[in-house]
Design a protein that fits this description.
binds adenosine-5'-diphosphate, 5-stranded mixed sheet, binds magnesium ion, alpha+beta, 34% helix, 23 strands
C-alpha cells in the first residue's frame, strides 16, 4: 500500500481510542470537565455499565451558546492557549479532546446554560456528526448525555469487560474523585440505584466511609506532611489493616488521579517490614506541588505525570507515610469484651448513624457535625504517642511465652518470640544497611542437603545471603556448605535458618532487591528467634526487654503482628470498679 494520509474519520477514531478506552473513561472526562467548570454538585447517571448511558450534570460555569459547537471539536479548549502554559496547568483538562472523542464514538447530547443567561442551548452529535444548536430550557450548568457508547465501533464493544467489572471501575473512580473533591456533592446512580452520595461538606473521612466502610474509615490514619513546597495529605491504613493487592493505593497529584509506579514503591517502602509479606496498604494521598514542577502532558488519558524532581516527590511521600506510621504504631489496647465491664470510651465517639444504606451506598446525614468530629478525634487519638517505648520494668515471665513488664502507663504483656524476632531483624538490617554484617565463622563447616527445587531456590539466593552475613557455597548437586553466619545468630542453628529461606517461598510480584533482602532476613530471624514455651533466665528476659526498647518499631514483629499488649492503668481501674463503673 502506498503511504497516504488517513481519512479524518479513521484518524479521529484512533485518537478517540486513546482517550475513551472504556465507559469509565467517559465518566472520568465528564467529571473532570464538571470540576473544571467549578461545579459544587455533580450528578452521574449510569445505565448498563455505561454502555446504554452515561450522563453527567453539574451546576458549573456552563458553555455560552455561541461556543457550543466548538466544544465538541477536536483540540478545542477554553483552558489553554500557549505551549508555555502547559507547565502551569491548574485545570484537569487542557487537551480539548474529550468531548470530541466521546462524541465520535457515541450519541452525545450537550445541554448547557451559563448562570445569568435565561435560555440554555442543546447540541446533538451522533458518531461525530453534529446537528444545529437549538435553544433548550434547563437549570444553570451543563449536562452531557452519552448514549450507546461504541455503537459505531463494534470491535471496541467486544473488548469491554464484564458489566460488573466496568461498573466497579466507575464506582471506584467516582468515589476517589469524591474523596479528592470533598467540597463537591457527588451523586452516583447505577441502573436506578444510588451507589454514592456525598455531602460536599469537605469531610474526607466521611467519604472514606463510603469507599471502605465505616469501620475501616475510622481506623485509617491521617497524613499531613510538608517539605518546602510539597505537601502530602490524606489517609493511609494502619499496619493492622491491609489488602492482598495494590489496587487500593491511590495518589492524586494536584487534584489529578494518577498511576505512578514509583510513588507506589515509595508507599510500599514506607510500610516495609510493618506488613506481612504479600500484603499491601490502602491509601489515598493528595500531593500538592507547584504546577511548574509537574508535566501533566504525558498520557492521552492524563493518567500519568512526570515530575521535574522525582526523587523529592518520592522521598516526601515515603517520609510522610513512614512518619505517620511510626507516630501511630499501635500497642493494641485491651478493650473490655462486651458484657464484661464497659466499652472503651474511645470507641463510643464514632457515630453508627454513619452506617451506610444497603448495597454499599452511603446515606450520609447532612448535619451532625458534633458526632462526626468526635468520631474523627477518637480515630486520631488512638495509638498515640510515638513509636518509642516508655522505660519498662520487668516483672517476670508467664507461661514461658510472655514477658510481663510495668511502664508508667500500665502493664505490658510482651510476646517473647515476636519481640525477639523484631530485635534480631532490626539489628541484621541495620548492619546490612551499613554494609557490614558481623559474621561469625563456624568451627566446623556444616553441610546441608536439599530437595532439588529448594536447592535451586537457595542457589539463587546465595548472593543475598552473603549480603546478610551468611557464608554459604554450593558444594555438589543439591548440597551446600555453610562456613559462617551473622554474629547475632551465634549459637543458633544455621541449617534451620537456611531451610527457612526456601520453605514455601513465594515471591512478591515484583520484589525489589531491598524487599527481597528484608523478606529473607525476616524469615531467618523468625526461625532463629526464641520460641514461645522456651524458658528464659531473668537476665535473658531483661536483655530482651532492653533490646526491644532500642528498636525503631518495637510494637510489631517484622511480619506485622503485635509484639505487645498494653493494659492501661485506666483500664485496670475500670475493670476493678475503681472508676467509672456503672
Ligand atoms: P478540555 O477539558 O481538555 O478543555 P473537553 O473536550 O473535555 O476539553 O472540553 C472542551 C471544552 O468544553 C472545555 O474546554 C470547556 O470550555 C467546555 N466544557 C466541557 N464540559 C464542560 C462543563 N461541564 N461545563 C462547562 N464547560 C465545559
Ligand atoms: Mg475535558
Amino acid at each position: 500500500m502506498p503511504i497516504h494520509i488517513l481519512s479524518a474519520e479513521v484518524a479521529s477514531q484512533i485518537a478517540a481510542g486513546e482517550v475513551v478506552e472504556r465507559p469509565a473513561s467517559v465518566v472520568k472526562e465528564l467529571l473532570e470537565n464538571a470540576l473544571d467548570a467549578g461545579a459544587t454538585r455533580v450528578a452521574i447517571l449510569v445505565e448498563k455499565a455505561g454502555q446504554r448511558l452515561v450522563e453527567v450534570s453539574d451546576d458549573g460555569a456552563g458553555i455560552p451558546q455561541d461556543e457550543m459547537a466548538l466544544a465538541v471539536e477536536r483540540h478545542a479548549t477554553s483552558k489553554l492557549r500557549l505551549a508555555e502554559e502547559l507547565f502551569s496547568i491548574r485545570t484537569l483538562g487542557f487537551r480539548g479532546e474529550a468531548l470530541a472523542s466521546i462524541a465520535s464514538v457515541s450519541r452525545l447530547t450537550l445541554d448547557s446554560r451559563p448562570p445569568g443567561t435565561t435560555v440554555g442551548a442543546r447540541l446533538r452529535v451522533e458518531g461525530g456528526v453534529s446537528s444545529a444548536v437549538e435553544p433548550a430550557a434547563m437549570p444553570a450548568g451543563t449536562r452531557v448525555r452519552v448514549e450507546d457508547l461504541f455503537f459505531n465501533v463494534p470491535a471496541r464493544l467486544k473488548f469491554l469487560k464484564k458489566e460488573s467489572t466496568e461498573r466497579s471501575q466507575m464506582d471506584a473512580l467516582v468515589m476517589r474523585y469524591a474523596l479528592a473533591y470533598s467540597h463537591v456533592r457527588f451523586h452516583l446512580v447505577q441502573d436506578g440505584k444510588t451507589v454514592l452520595q456525598t455531602s460536599g461538606n469537605n469531610e474526607r473521612r466521611e467519604v472514606l466511609a463510603s469507599l471502605y466502610g465505616v469501620d475501616t474509615a475510622r481506623q485509617m490514619l491521617e497524613v499531613l506532611f510538608e517539605d518546602q513546597d510539597i505537601t502530602v495529605r490524606g489517609f493511609i491504613s494502619p499496619v493492622g489493616l491491609s489488602r492482598s493487592n495494590r489496587r487500593e493505593i491511590t495518589f492524586f497529584i494536584n487534584g489529578r488521579w494518577v498511576q505512578d509506579a514509583s510513588l507506589n514503591t515509595a508507599m510500599l517502602q514506607a510500610y516495609h517490614t510493618l506488613l506481612m509479606v504479600g500484603r499491601y496498604p490502602m491509601s489515598a494521598l493528595f500531593v500538592e506541588l507547584p504546577p511548574e514542577d509537574v508535566d501533566v502532558n504525558v498520557h492521552p488519558a492524563k493518567a500519568e505525570v512526570r515530575f521535574r524532581n522525582p526523587d523529592r516527590v518520592f522521598s516526601a511521600v515515603q517520609r510522610a507515610v513512614r512518619r505517620c506510621l511510626l507516630a501511630y504504631s499501635p500497642v493494641p489496647q485491651v478493650v473490655s469484651p462486651a458484657g464484661w465491664g464497659q466499652a472503651s470510651p474511645r470507641q463510643a465517639g464514632f457515630d453508627p448513624a454513619w452506617e451506610m444504606a444497603g448495597g454499599g451506598a452511603a446515606a450520609l446525614p447532612d448535619g451532625e457535625p458534633d458526632s462526626q468530629a468526635a468520631g474523627r478525634e477518637a480515630a486520631s487519638a488512638e495509638g498515640l504517642p510515638s513509636g518509642a517505648l516508655p522505660l519498662l520494668r520487668l516483672v517476670g515471665q508467664v507461661g514461658n511465652t510472655y514477658l510481663v513488664a510495668e511502664g508508667p502507663d500500665g502493664l505490658y504483656l510482651i510476646d517473647q518470640h515476636a519481640a525477639h524476632e523484631r530485635v534480631l531483624f532490626e539489628r541484621l538490617i541495620s548492619q546490612q544497611k551499613r554494609g557490614r554484617v558481623d559474621s561469625q565463622a563456624l568451627l566446623e563447616p556444616l553441610v546441608l542437603h536439599l530437595p532439588p527445587r529448594q536447592a535451586a531456590m537457595l542457589g539463587e539466593k546465595l548472593p543475598i545471603l552473603a549480603v546478610l552475613g551468611f557464608d554459604v557455597e554450593s558444594f555438589g548437586p543439591a548440597t551446600f556448605r555453610v562456613r559462617a553466619l551473622p554474629a547475632i545468630f551465634t549459637g543458633r542453628d544455621p541449617l534451620a535458618a537456611l531451610r527457612a529461606v526456601v520453605e514455601d517461598f513465594e515471591e512478591d510480584e515484583t520484589p525489589l532487591q531491598a524487599e527481597l533482602e528484608a523478606q529473607i532476613a525476616g524469615r531467618v530471624c523468625k526461625r532463629l528467634a526464641v520460641k514461645g514455651g522456651q524458658t528464659l533466665s531473668p537476665d535473658e528476659q531483661k536483655a530482651l526487654l532492653r533490646d526491644l526498647e532500642t528498636c525503631q518499631s518495637p510494637r510489631t514483629c517484622p511480619h506485622g503482628r503485635p509484639t505487645m499488649i498494653h493494659l492501661s492503668v485506666d483500664l485496670l481501674e475500670r475493670q476493678f470498679g475503681r472508676r467509672g463503673a456503672r
